[in-house]
Backbone:
């Protein structure tokens, strides 16, 4: 880098930190747009991809601080919370519930989505331990049993002394009468717990299980998210830092919580895809975001589709989210022969080591199939691969690996397949997986997908869009000039948004309207504060 620091205020950075790549779109003070793509994990080269992307676009030398007066805003989507949830790497969490309901979140609704499974494998609970507190409020807001804080105090102290710093408080009918939750929260903060999530603030809705699961997830994920935000904010200084929420709106970094972050990255892609499709004159769109680790698809017809309760990684989330369906098929999805069948995914090569062509000793992946078939030409890619980031894509390694697999297949099955045939077969499997994901959010819900435009984006979207369209019978494919970084571009197109929910338990009749208006006004005021 030449070390030239941009001193004129006005830069904005729109960033999508994905599982494999981090995409950065920078809007310069003169309004011009600049794009940058980095591996999300490259420990030999940098500590954090988002910060490095900003430094690269500002042309800063190593060690130079980021000039905060040059930046108007940084708008980000991140998979930090999503990855922590999937990998169960959140903070140790204590759950406090009304006496007698210790196992309610484990029991949940006793749903059996797979009736004929002989061995039921329940998802791992996010909380580490449970403490019951004597208290009870009924559904008519009557206190049946007073709150026993003194009986709870020594058990909270014991958990704190054991190193637990995050607590989720979920009491019966707490969404209606929050007083007991507030008093327990005050006690927890007095003892020293640094993350205290109460159900009436996190998810003020009826249904104990959904409210409880959401509160536990918030307590479990918020600390790790907060540490990441603090690290970014510490490097950027006093910069307007905003994060994309799962509902498709931006929120200030200081207000960003774990429950808001589950679909942070994919939501930016939906916003970018919809806004650019509408600019092109299309209001019926299937969004197709194929990255390195997974593919996200969504349906749009004149309005964003949202869900208010969904299950993510085995955890029930009762919060507004864009309706996005994800399938484990991306450019980094592993391609292998298991001795009987050809398989694609769900495991991914990730950013490190990445596919075999990245020169890091990685396994064969979908990207390598495109290299093998000549759809990706190493000569047209920059020399940014290998340990020192100065080598081109390695086509020879790909051909060698596929030749070895062809020999393995012939030895195991007696059938001769050329390396090109193997690569083409793996691609067909990946395409079918992605096409089935689109059918799930369109055809299976009664929409005629042939009436829609396929808006393809993501690092691998353009390589497979026409194959997907052929399988689905779609006639229109949109490829935006920023398709490779459209999720990051969507961060810049998104609005600051606050969605609030509240349960109203009353008969639906005209006399209820004045009360509803008062409640809506109150929610609007809370959202604007």
Residues:
């Amino acid at each position: 880098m030449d070390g030239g620091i941009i001193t004129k205020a006005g830069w904005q950075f729109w960033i999508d930190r994905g599982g494999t790549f981090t995409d950065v779109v920078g809007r310069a003070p003169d309004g011009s747009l600049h794009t940058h793509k980095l591996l999300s994990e490259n420990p030999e080269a940098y500590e954090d991809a988002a910060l490095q992307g900003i430094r690269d676009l500002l042309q800063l030398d190593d060690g130079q601080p980021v000039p905060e007066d040059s930046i108007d805003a940084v708008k980000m989507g991140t998979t930090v919370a999503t990855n922590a949830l999937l990998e169960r790497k959140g903070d140790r969490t204590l759950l406090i519930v009304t006496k007698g309901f210790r196992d309610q979140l484990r029991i949940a609704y006793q749903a059996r989505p797979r009736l004929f499974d002989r061995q039921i494998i329940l998802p791992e609970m996010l909380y580490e331990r449970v403490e019951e507190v004597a208290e009870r409020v009924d559904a008519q807001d009557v206190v049946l049993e007073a709150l026993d804080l003194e009986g709870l105090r020594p058990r909270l102290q014991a958990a704190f002394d054991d190193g637990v710093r995050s607590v989720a408080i979920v009491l019966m009918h707490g969404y209606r009468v929050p007083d007991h939750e507030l008093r327990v929260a005050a006690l927890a903060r007095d003892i020293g717990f640094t993350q205290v999530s109460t159900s009436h603030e996190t998810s003020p809705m009826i249904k104990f299980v959904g409210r409880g699961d959401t509160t536990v997830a918030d307590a479990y994920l918020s600390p790790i998210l907060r540490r990441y935000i603090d690290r970014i904010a510490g490097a950027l200084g006093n910069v307007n830092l905003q994060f994309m929420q799962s509902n498709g709106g931006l929120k200030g970094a200081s207000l960003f919580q774990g429950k808001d972050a589950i679909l942070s990255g994919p939501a930016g892609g939906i916003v970018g895809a919809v806004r650019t499709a509408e600019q092109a004159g299309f209001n019926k769109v299937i969004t197709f975001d194929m990255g390195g680790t997974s593919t996200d698809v969504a349906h749009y017809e004149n309005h964003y589709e949202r869900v208010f309760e969904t299950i993510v990684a085995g955890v029930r989330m009762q919060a507004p989210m864009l309706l996005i369906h994800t399938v484990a098929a991306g450019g980094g999805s592993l391609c292998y022969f298991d001795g009987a069948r050809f398989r694609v995914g769900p495991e991914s090569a990730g950013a490190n080591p990445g596919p075999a062509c990245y020169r890091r000793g990685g396994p064969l992946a979908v990207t390598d199939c495109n290299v093998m078939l000549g759809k990706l030409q190493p000569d047209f890619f920059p020399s940014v691969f290998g340990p020192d980031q100065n080598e081109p894509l390695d086509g020879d390694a790909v051909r060698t690996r596929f030749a070895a697999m062809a020999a393995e297949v012939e030895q195991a099955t007696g059938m001769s397949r050329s390396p090109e045939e193997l690569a083409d077969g793996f691609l067909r499997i990946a395409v079918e997986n992605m096409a089935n994901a689109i059918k799930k959010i369109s055809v299976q819900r009664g929409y005629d997908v042939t009436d829609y435009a396929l808006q393809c984006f993501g690092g691998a979207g353009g390589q497979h869009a026409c194959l997907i369209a052929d399988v689905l019978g779609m006639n229109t494919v949109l490829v935006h000039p920023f398709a490779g970084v459209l999720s990051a571009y969507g961060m810049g197109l998104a609005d600051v948004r606050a969605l609030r929910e509240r349960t109203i338990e009353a008969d639906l009749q005209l006399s209820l309207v004045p009360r509803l208006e008062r409640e809506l006004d109150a929610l609007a005021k809370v959202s604007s504060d």
In short: The first helix runs from residue 49 to 57.
